[in-house]
Amino acid sequence: MRPLTLKRPKPLLTVDGKPLIEHIIGALPKEINELIMVIGYKGEQIQNFLGDEFRGLKIKYVWQKEKLGTGHALGLCRPFLGREKFLMLFADDIYGKGVFEEMLKRDLAVAVTEVEDPRRFGVILMNKNKKILEIEEKPENPKSNIISCGAMVLDGRIFDYKPSRHSNGEYYLTTMTNQLIQDYDLYGVEAPTWISIGYPEDLKKAEGILKLNAEH
Fold first, then answer.
1. Distance (Å, rounded) from C-alpha 127 to C-alpha 204?
2. What is the pLDDT of residues 115-144, one digit of tens each?
C-alpha cells in the first residue's frame, strides 16, 4: 500500500470520505459491545483517532511490537477474552451487509468466498453442510477455490491450541484452527461481497461495496 501508508497506518486510509476503520466499526452487529484492537505500525495514530470509546463501544488496545503473525496477535488478546465468544476481524477488509450477523448464529464460524486464484489465501475444504474440514495457508497447489476471508467467530476454546512457527518466523492462526476442527465443528459462512485491501486500486473497489451496503 505504499506510498499511501508511509505516514499513516492502513486502517486510517480514507475510503468514501471516512477512515477504513470507521467503516469497519460501523458495520459491526449490535451483539458486539466492546473492541480489543491489536495495533502495531503507527498504532498511536489509531489510538488518537478512536480514543477509549468510539460509537458507544469501549476499546482496549494491545500492542504487537513485532510482526509475528495472526496466531501471535490473537494470543495477545487472551487475557481480555477469557472463554467468551468473539468476532475476530482484520482492519483492512470490507464485507457486504449481513455476513457478521449470519456468522454469529454459529458457535464457531469463518467467512468464506470463492476466488479465481486462491494461492495467496487460506484455502478451505468444506463438506456439503459447510463444515470446515481443513484450512491450508497459501498453498502452491490449492485443493479448492474457496478461501477464508479472515473474519471468524471463535471462543476461548481456540486458546487450547498452540500456533506453530512458520518458516518466515510468523505464528499463523491457521495452525490453531486446524487443531480446533479436529475436536469441534467450525462452519463456513458465505461472504459473496468482500475485499481485502492490499493495493491502492482496492480502495475504489471497497467504495463500491460500501455504496452497495448503504442501498440495502
1. 35
2. 999 988 899 999 999 999 999 988 889 999
Q: Please tell me what DSSP assigns to residue 162.
A: -
The span from the CA of 122 to the CA of 135, in Å, is: 6
CA 202, CA 42: separation in Å to the nearest integer? 21
Specify the pLDDT at position 191: 94
CATH code of 90's domain: 3.90.550.10
Number of domains the chain is built from: 1
Asked whether 174 and 141 are in contact (CB, 8 A), the reply is no
Phi, psi (rounded to 5 degrees) for 207:
-60, -40
Cell of 68: 509475528
The continuous run of DSSP H or E covering 37 comes out as: strand 34-39
- Tens-place pLDDT, residues 40-60: 999 999 999 999 999 999 999
**5 within domain boundaries:** no
Quick check: is 42 in a domain?
yes
Burial class (CB in 10 A: 0-12, 13-18, 19+), 150: buried
Amino acid at 111: A
What gap in Å lies between CA 109 and CA 16, rounded to an integer?
29
The three three-digit cell numbers of residue 166, written as one number: 512458520
Q: What is the pLDDT of residues 60-108, one digit of tens each?
A: 999 999 999 999 999 999 999 999 999 999 999 999 889 999 999 999 9
| Structural domain contains residue 2 | no
The whole domain housing 81 covers 10-214
Residue 168 in any domain: the answer is yes
Cβ proximity of 111 and 148 under 8 Å:
yes
